[in-house]
Amino acid sequence: MSRVLNCIVAVCPDRGIGYKGDLPWHPTRLNNEFKHFRRLTVTRTPGAEDRRNVVIMGRRTWFSIPEKNRPLNDRINIVLSRQLEAPPAGAHHLARDLASALRLLDGPSTTGGLLADQVWVIGGSSLYSEVMETPGPRRLFVTQILKQFPSDTFFPDIGPTRYRLLPEYPGVSSELQEENGIQYRFQVYQSIDP
């Protein structure tokens, strides 16, 4: 069975995920949404305590993370870039593309002797598109921000023939959330087997 790839993202109603290198709602902070992101991307599968989760991101996503928060701790950080020759300061690994990053996960050298558990793709837009169009088991953890903000970067359309919205998912609240006057909902989509 092939590895499940998880995408995690927060989107505006028009699927906007970024604006001028930051989140569309910046400078407003959604601390509970960040806690949700961290909890999901850090939590390992029961019985996988000897493994670590992996976050895969494009170069621009890496540099959009405040320097004080890089690397994302308790996770193996893999940055994708065709321009960089070495991993940016703080990143654990550099790969030219998604396929190369996934090959890194097959050997114990990736984690200093530990194998990878869950794999999380955290952006950007073209990487999300690639993952969503690739065959195999995929999950999309989407925070639907219920307020529109200016955006210049967008999440791909979640095609109903490729993905289905799950009515519930363990550990993910289905309740309406609100912070700093912004309402949002957590949703989980599962890829549909061809």
From TrEMBL:
Pfam families: DHFR_1
GO molecular function: dihydrofolate reductase activity; NADP binding
Catalytic activity of the protein: (6S)-5,6,7,8-tetrahydrofolate + NADP(+) = 7,8-dihydrofolate + NADPH + H(+)
Pathway: Cofactor biosynthesis; tetrahydrofolate biosynthesis; 5,6,7,8-tetrahydrofolate from 7,8-dihydrofolate: step 1/1
Annotated GO biological process: dihydrofolate metabolic process; folic acid metabolic process; one-carbon metabolic process; tetrahydrofolate biosynthetic process
InterPro entries per UniProt: DHFR, DHFR-like_dom_sf, DHFR_dom
E.C. number(s) listed in UniProt: 1.5.1.3
Domain DHFR, first and last residues per copy: 4-191
Taxonomy, superkingdom: Eukaryota
Similarity field: Belongs to the dihydrofolate reductase family.
Name of the protein described by the UniProt record: dihydrofolate reductase
Biological classification of the source: Eukaryota, Metazoa, Chordata, Craniata, Vertebrata
